[in-house]
Design a protein that fits this description.
By secondary structure, chain A is α/β, with parallel strands linked by helices. Helices cover 33% and strands 26% of the residues of chain A. The chains are: A alpha/beta, B alpha+beta. The structure holds adenosine-5'-triphosphate and magnesium ion (MG).
Chain lengths: 222, 403
């Protein structure tokens, strides 16, 4: 699914450039569930942004599902984000003037699907699968933190991506909700979805099939 | 247009309506300027169009190539125009003149056999008067040369005068006593349009309450003087030299008569009116600019407060172009709604003006089309910059934990 070779990312600063990712190489197979730990500032979010095509690497190659991403145009990158990748962030944002189902269907707006009603139906189905079917008409701001994360997962799955990138998805949640989210992740992973999940919690990390650490800009399997 | 584009546009329009429905009061306040501006534009067009139409109707019957020689009513002891003078003028200008009509005008008291009574303007004139002013007969006939020659006691009534004097509708053949003499009603004119106060100088203001009788050619001793002579020129182009000649003749003869040139009145009237319209247009334009800035201000605030939304949209596959299009659409929808509201407000005000005053209003669909177009243009122009601002939002920064 993911094939990274010699990836570097640095930020230009007032002084010397800040090297965040240093000659990083790793791969993630189809349907693999990898959890990534690492101290704060290690570059985990930076890596996820690059893998998610929101940011570009300074150096190195990144192959996503057989496509070299570094050569793609902004338009093609947007298409990759839309079709091949699902995002879940620590605190998920929603469009508050749209109801929950329309929020979940948001990736459909930028995709190829052309039927608003069918999009909404699919969104409601996804909400059902994360236990939020009843809340389709609600404003996102009405939801609790745990519900928001589940809704965010439903949204990430809308275009049926092969890869889910989750940046501390359980960071703001209590124990029960952490459990709920992880249960959903494991189910999705069993269904064939590749997941890369950043977390600070060793117990959460332990739920993944494969665990790794990012230290000093280098990724090491634990 | 490809299907994908239509689909995106539909999605953006739907999105914009949902946005503004959620932020109703914000939308209302920021669009107020455009509402007022468009309403002003619609009112301006309706009022201007109405006045123009009325003026054209008033002068249209007379035509541009007409000149009135009128005895100076301001002078003490009005000195009428001598017929000799008119004869000389007609001889001099002969080939250029298409038609002329002499008029003696007085205010008279009229009474019917049934006892109906009233004060009217009596115009003793000749048949050509009807052609020059394009008066249309409802029934009967107008004054003829025979009437004048034989000094017939006949009269022709305007629509309104006949309605007042003969409310039962029996008009033709009835007897009417005008200043002591009985006349037979031989003609009844069709109603004519209303008149503008500006046209009082043309003596058209009382056009609705008139009685026409045959021109009095001579009294026992001298030829009866005239109060007014209407000359209609064949061509408007060569009028100015003829007018100069007439003016010289009037000065030379020390006639206390004035020349009234309707086309000049029209020009003056239009000049003042277009000044007024220009002023209103400037005010409406200013309002629209202020309205546009209001929309821009709201959109910029929107972009700032909706950065996480923008980041999210980019993360799920929006391109910068998609973001620009979305925010332009939002501004356009807001401006279009404001335009529609402005048109509505404008028409309501126009209706109220028309109801409260006797101004003629032109309910013109082109005003609505123009108002809407202007509103949407304002939305596009002032929504462009905020949209570009929105597209420059960095998804990474806007999606950070702290955001
Ligand atoms: N746009 C930027 N410009 C400069 N430095 C940046 C920028 N973005 C991130 N950094 C720096 O890069 C480093 C890595 O940041 P990143 O957010 O990837 O860390 P992280 O591993 O996700 O940390 P945490 O666990 O706290 O979320 C940090 O030192 C951060 O200050
Ligand atoms: Mg981070």
């Amino acid at each position: 699914m993911i094939e990274v070779r010699g990836l570097s990312k640095s930020y230009a600063g007032p002084g010397a450039p800040l090297m965040v990712l240093r000659d990083l190489s790793f791969s993630l197979g189809e349907g693999e569930f990898l959890s990534l730990m690492g101290s704060s500032g290690a570059g985990k979010s930076t890596l996820l942004n690059v893998l998610g095509c929101l940011d570009t690497a300074t150096q190195g190659s990144y192959c996503l599902a057989g496509t070299e991403v570094s050569g793609l145009s902004p338009r093609e990158l947007a298409q990759v984000r839309n079709r091949d990748i699902g995002f879940v962030f620590q605190s998920s944002h929603f469009v508050d003037y749209l109801d929950l189902a329309d929020n979940v269907a948001l990736p459909g707006t930028y995709g190829d699907s052309d039927n608003g009603a069918a999009d909404r139906e699919r969104a409601v189905g996804l909400l059902d699968s994360v236990g939020l079917g009843e809340r389709q008409d609600h404003r996102p701001s009405m939801l609790s933190g745990g519900e928001r994360q589940r809704a965010a997962i439903a949204r990430a799955l809308f275009n049926n991506p092969g890869l889910l990138l989750a940046d501390e998805p359980t960071g703001n949640l209590d124990e029960d909700n952490v459990h709920n989210v992880l249960a959903i992740f494991r189910r999705l992973n069993r269904e064939g979805l590749a997941i890369l999940m950043v977390t600070h919690d060793p117990q959460v990390a332990a739920q993944a099939g494969r665990q790794a650490r990012l230290d000093d800009g280098v990724l090491i399997d634990a | 247009m490809p299907d994908a584009m239509i689909k995106r546009l539909q999605a953006d329009l739907l999105n914009a309506t949902r946005l503004w429905r959620t932020f109703r009061s914000q939308a209302l306040l920021s669009a107020l300027g455009v509402v007022v501006g468009v309403a002003g534009l619609v009112i301006l067009i309706a009022v201007g169009g109405g006045a123009k139409r009325e003026l054209e109707a008033a002068l249209g019957s007379l035509g541009a190539g007409a000149v009135l020689i009128r005895s100076d009513a301001d002078a003490t002891g009005t000195r009428p125009v001598e017929q000799r003078f008119v004869d000389r003028a007609l001889t001099l200008l002969g080939p250029q003149i298409e038609a002329s009509a002499r008029v003696q005008s007085t205010t008279v008291h009229a009474t019917t056999a049934q006892g109906e009574t009233g004060d009217f303007r009596r115009l003793a004139t000749e048949g050509s008067y009807r052609e020059i002013f394009r008066l249309r007969l409802y029934a009967g006939r107008f004054i003829t040369a025979h009437d004048i020659r034989e000094a017939q006691r006949v009269c022709v009534l305007t629509w309104e005068a006949a309605r007042r004097l003969f409310p039962n509708g029996q008009v033709l053949g009835q007897q009417l006593r005008i200043d002591g003499d009985w006349h037979t009603v031989v003609g009844w004119l069709q109603p004519s349009g209303s008149q503008l106060p500006e046209l009082n100088a043309l003596n058209l203001a009382d056009i609705n309450l008139r009685i026409y009788t045959p021109l009095q050619v001579r009294t026992v001793v001298t030829r009866t003087p005239l109060d007014e002579v209407v000359l209609k020129f064949r061509s408007e182009a060569r009028m100015s030299s003829a007018i100069e000649l007439l003016q010289r003749m009037l000065a030379h003869n020390e006639e206390s008569a004035e020349l009234i040139i309707p086309i000049e009145l029209l020009r003056q009237q239009q000049a003042t009116q277009s000044m007024f319209q220009l002023f209103l247009l400037a005010v409406a334009g200013l309002m629209l600019v202020v309205g546009g800035v209001g929309i821009m201000n709201t959109m910029i605030l929107n972009v700032v407060s909706r950065r996480p939304e923008i980041g999210l949209r980019i993360a799920v596959g929006a391109t910068q172009r998609d973001i620009v299009q979305q925010f332009v659409c939002e501004a356009l929808v807001l401006a279009a709604a404001a335009g529609a509201a402005g048109i509505l407000v404008g028409y309501v005000v126009v209706a109220l003006i028309g109801w409260g005053t006797d101004w003629s209003m032109a309910f013109d669909a082109s005003a609505a089309v123009l108002g809407f177009t202007v509103a949407v243009t304002v939305g596009g122009v002032f929504g462009g910059y905020p949209a570009l601002l929105a597209a420059s939002v960095s998804p990474i920064e806007s999606l950070r934990r702290a955001a």
